[in-house]
Structure formats: C-alpha cells, structure tokens
C-alpha cells in the first residue's frame, strides 16, 4: 500500500513537472512567433523603403498651392514629412489612366513609421492619399544623403544657385538609421540609381 502511495506521489510530481515544461514550451512558441512576425514586418518595410529609393525619379512636383515646385526628393521640416520623393515603377495592372510615377512620403507619427502615397504627382490640397503604417515601436528615424562630393548631409536638395537643377537632383546614396524601442538600431545604405 505504501509503495502504491509513493508511486502515485512520484507520478503526480512528474506530471506537474511535465505540465510546467509543456506550458513553458507553449509560451515560448507564442513569443517566438510574435518576434518572428515582427522581424518579417521590419524586413518587408526595409525592402519597400529600398524599392522606393532605388526607383527615385528626377521629377519634381508642383506645390499644393501651385506656387513653385518641390524637389524630386526633399526633406522639409515644414511639410511634416521626414522625406518625400517621386519614384518610378508604380505598377498599373488594371490599366488605369495614371502615370507610372508615384509621390511617396515617410513620416513619424507617435512611435510609428508611416508611408504615404498619392495617386497623382502634382496634387492639390483636395487630393486624397493612402496612409500605411509600416513599423511601430520606433524611437526615431534619420535619413542622410550622399552628395557628389562624397559628403553625407541631412538636408536634400542641397542649396544651389540653379533652382531647377537642385529640385531635379538626386543623391548618390541614402542612409537610413532607425532606432527601435526593443530591437535597437538598424542602419542601411541604399544606392540611388543614376
């Protein structure tokens, strides 16, 4: 009888340990799945940024009020965007009456990196835009630009005597530094097609 009680006690202890290990494994699996999904989202977002930068087109746009032009790529603190650019290669599988060029902007909103695009290049204040959240839990994002002198600068377009040249000019490369709340810092350098 005592042997039966001892064996039942041992079985109960082993069952409790087994349950604890199984429960820990399930929790670890959920955490790994969440981390993996986040990593895939970061990779997708970086790939989209890379595609935008590789396909920058030297096409400035008219300002929203029709007074002057904004550069093909620009960083303007007054616009509210961290970066705004014109890119080519916008697919049109439905054959809609629109350009293959697209105006894209990136901005930080709270702790999120937002990508905005418009269906027209030379937009007005009434034009609609599409806003997509790329990544969240971001502390900061910084864009720097490689000029023809091999210098990294934070403002684009660079100041120039030739206004038209400066608004169509593209950098040789763009560096992006994203600081995440959890993952730390990611740095990427992209070559801009000539």
From TrEMBL:
Localisation: Cell inner membrane
Keywords: Cell inner membrane, Cell membrane, Membrane, Methylation, Transmembrane, Transmembrane helix
A Pfam family recorded for this sequence: T2SSJ
A single cellular component GO annotation: type II protein secretion system complex
Gene Ontology process terms (BP): protein secretion by the type II secretion system
Major place of residence: membrane
Annotated InterPro entries: N_methyl_site (IPR012902), Pilin-like (IPR045584), T2SS_protein-GspJ (IPR010055), T2SS_protein_J (IPR051621)
Gene3D superfamilies: GSPII I/J protein-like (3.10.610.10), gspk-gspi-gspj complex like domains (2.10.70.20)
Bilayer topology term: Single-pass membrane protein
Coiled-coil annotated spans: none
Xref: PANTHER family: TYPE II SECRETION SYSTEM PROTEIN J, TYPE II SECRETION SYSTEM PROTEIN J-RELATED
Similarity remark: Belongs to the GSP J family.
Protein name: Type II secretion system protein J
């Amino acid at each position: 009888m005592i042997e039966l009680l001892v064996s039942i006690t041992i079985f109960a202890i082993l069952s409790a340990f087994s349950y604890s290990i199984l429960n820990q494994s399930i929790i670890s699996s959920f955490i790994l799945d969440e981390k993996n999904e986040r990593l895939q989202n970061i990779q997708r977002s970086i790939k989209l940024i890379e595609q935008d930068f590789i396909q920058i087109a030297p096409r400035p746009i008219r300002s929203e009020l029709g007074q002057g032009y904004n550069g093909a790529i620009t960083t303007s603190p007054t616009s509210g965007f961290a970066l705004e650019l014109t890119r080519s290669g916008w697919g049109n599988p439905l054959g809609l009456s629109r350009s293959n060029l697209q105006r894209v902007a990136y901005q930080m909103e709270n702790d999120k990196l937002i990508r905005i695009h418009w269906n027209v290049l030379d937009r007005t204040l009434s034009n609609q835009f599409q806003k997509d959240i790329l990544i969240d839990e971001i502390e900061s994002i910084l864009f720097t630009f490689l000029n023809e002198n091999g210098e990294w600068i934070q403002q684009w377009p660079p100041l120039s005597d030739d206004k038209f040249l400066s608004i169509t000019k593209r950098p040789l490369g763009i560096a992006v530094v994203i600081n995440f709340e959890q993952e730390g810092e990611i740095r990427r350098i992209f070559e801009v097609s000539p």
